[in-house]
Amino acid sequence: MSYKVLLADDERLDLEGMRTFIPWQKLGMEVVDAVTNGFNARSVLTSEKIDILVTDVRMPHMSGLELAELALTEKKDLKIIFVSGYQDFHYAKQALSLNACGYVLKPMDDQELIDSLIKARDQLDLERKRQAEYSQMIPVVKNEYMLQLFEGAYTESTIEVLHREYNLVHFAWPGRVCVLEIDDLFKMEGQTDESRGKSNTWLDSLLEWSQEAGILHGCKIDKNRVALLLQQHTGLAVVERLVDNVKREFGTTLTAGIGGNCSEVYEIERSYRQALEAVELKMFRGKGKLIEFEDVPKSEMDDIKMFDVRMDALFKALSSYELVRIHDELDALFQTAKNAKSKFTVRNYAFYLLLKLDDYLHTVNEDLFELLNMDMRSLDIILQLETIDDIHLWLRQRLYQISELLNSKRQKKNWKLISEIISFIKDRIQDNITLRDVAEQFSFSPNYLGLLFKEETGKNFSEYLIMLRMERACELLKNTNLKIYEIADQVGYRYLPYFSRQFKETYGKTPLEYRRK
């Protein structure tokens, strides 16, 4: 895209010279017009989008300085270059006050004008780049402010920005929060990378459609959820149309949770939490439903809250390789499902449990499908299992398998670390090495590393260090003619009596007796 330039000079020869001899196209510029007075220039500035004004300082009726001042009141980012046959400092000073990109004296040196034009172009390039970056940041910033509003983490300045920049001040109360959750994201993530990318597409499209439908305030919550703040006049039919749009465009359904009414900003968080709770009922009610919090029986909400508690306990048991506890927590979870007495609900419950499990595994940098060496299609077995007990047993076996794999990977990872630490200690056995020194070397806290060391070796750090030193002392006593005090020094003991006492406590003999045997 080229920048548009307006030339203004009452000297026609100078005007024609600028138009003819400056390589405008090469500079990435286009001369829109060349006029001989300030009034005509003003008219062009009003009718055309001009980026750069090149004007003579002194013109009849309206000077170039007056023209520039007027133009800048309407277009603050206009770049101005003055040309003048006068070297008067007064003119130059006024030009500087208008932040001109150049002040070129007549008779003009083409290169001097070109340099000023390049300076103006560079400034415009930088401003465009910043504007583009700012435009990209606008939705990100608004999303963050709206998320703070929904989660109750806002400040007074957050509300001020939302009122001033995003028109929250004109919101028609009472409102209520709607949370929309994609139903098939789990399936999409179990397939190709291209499928995974669709989540962002539907999130962005849904927010765009919401704006078009008059829902001006919303944000992304996470990879599969959007929250919308519905105004008083926004009926649920609008939400249903949004759901239909997603189904038509992306071939997937949405579940909507609707919170209760809120009449002030500080009540939005409550409505948001209620909408989240309503969405969680998908596992009992099925996908693609619109669930209003106020229509949900208390007993059903209690089941959801207990489910979350049980899931947390199950994940802790899973990560700590407590198979009996995994068995008990899964039993407790399935008791709720059995109360539903619906095969559809139980299957949906199992899929939901796997979704939560996959989310948890991602927090520890693991993947459900990679751990089980399977893909999304493999989960169709849940649809083929005939009884609740069959589904329960299948899930229990998978959970045992995952816990075993996590434990095995953790042990391998930890033992590799401990092996590196032991090698590090052996290389520095003669130094006064401490647990803190080793912790700093391997970027751990001393307390954590001490616990890990004891867990993997069965000994605390100081006990293991003594064992390594004594083993090394035995090798030197057997295979060298070094004096006892030299051996003590080589294994980290600067005080010989202490070394001898430690050696005798370990082997029941003094170093000299050990060497003579």
TrEMBL record:
Modified sites of kind 4-aspartylphosphate: 56
Keywords, comma-separated and alphabetical: Cytoplasm, DNA-binding, Phosphoprotein, Transcription, Transcription regulation, Two-component regulatory system
Transcription regulation found in the keyword field: yes
Localization of this protein: Cytoplasm
Annotated ranges, domain HTH araC/xylS-type: 419-517
Domain Response regulatory residue range list: 4-121
Keyword Cytoplasm: yes
Record-linked InterPro entries: CdaR_GGDEF, CheY-like_superfamily, Homeodomain-like_sf, HptR, HTH_AraC, HTH_AraC-typ_CS, Sig_transdc_resp-reg_receiver, Tscrpt_reg_AraC-type_HTH
Pfam families associated with the record: GGDEF_2 (PF17853), HTH_18 (PF12833), Response_reg (PF00072)
Chief site of localization: cytoplasm
Top-level taxon: Bacteria
PANTHER family noted in UniProt: HISTIDINE KINASE-RELATED, TRANSCRIPTIONAL REGULATORY PROTEIN HPTR
Protein name: Response regulator
Source organism of this protein record: Paenibacillus aurantiacus
